[in-house]
Amino acid sequence: MTAKTKKKIQKVIIYVLLLAGSVLCLMPLFWMIRSSLMTNVEIFMVPIHWLPEKIQWQNYKEVFTTLPFLTYYANSLKLVFFVVTGAVLTSSLCAYGLSRIDWAGRNIVFACIMGSMMLPTAVTIIPTFLMFRRIGITNSLLPLIIPAWLGGGAFYIFLLRQFFLSIPRDMDEAAYIDGATHFQIYSRIMLPLTKPALVVVGMFAFMNTWNDFLGPLIYLNSDDKYTVALGLQLFIGSYRAEWQLMMAAACLVVIPAVLVFMIGQRYLIEGITMTGVKG
């Protein structure tokens, strides 16, 4: 057997393994979509029906009529918009100050920010809740939005700082000679160059916020302020036997996350790759 033939066989084996792994990963998603388009009886029929005999589109309509799922959707979209905007803006500002401006104690502050990532959520969640309750903004989206406008998060700052460090200093120096201020350099030079990293931060912020269950569970008490994560859990608890409706509701929750990932997939790979170039 020649070396060329061995190489082709190895490629075939690799592709077969990757295809098998992809099928295993996509099977739960396929099963969820398939079940959402069936009747409750058809879901559990033996032998298994892989495709619905008649597509039940009314399952999705019933999701919005049995519970105010449209309100949950609106709350989640509003929350995601403000959190993503705040995380991208404030984390990029912090990363710029930690990477492009020389000031005393910069490395110490960055070490403290990185150290905050080691704190479990359970350690800070009680004092944070007490603080927001003392202020009087619980049972609203503000406790979930405000932290995003105060730095966005240590991980986002780290990603953007690494990206900023990979940009040559010559651009800053040329701008200084032309009389540009730090804010002008940040807004007109750095932000356009860091678009892939900003997209990565935005995608991570979107996914974390859209899928967040613990935060809304702690701060929200009224049904009209619930997000889709709480709404889905409420749906599961109220309609436990209606599997087709639960699968339809789960599909509605998954769709935005899948769309965001598909749109930003190219930027996600590019941004993560480039943020790891320099340490």
Automatic annotation (TrEMBL):
The chain crosses the membrane at residues 12-33, 77-96, 108-132, 144-164, 185-207, 243-264. Keywords: Cell membrane, Membrane, Transmembrane, Transmembrane helix, Transport. The keyword Membrane applies. Its main location: membrane. It is a multi-pass membrane protein. It is found in: Cell membrane. GO terms for biological process: transmembrane transport. InterPro entries: MetI-like, MetI-like_sf. The keyword Cell membrane applies. One of its GO terms (cellular component) is plasma membrane. Residues 73-264 form the ABC transmembrane type-1 domain. Belongs to the binding-protein-dependent transport system permease family. This is ABC transporter, permease protein. It comes from Marvinbryantia formatexigens DSM 14469. The lineage of its organism: Bacteria, Bacillati, Bacillota, Clostridia, Lachnospirales.
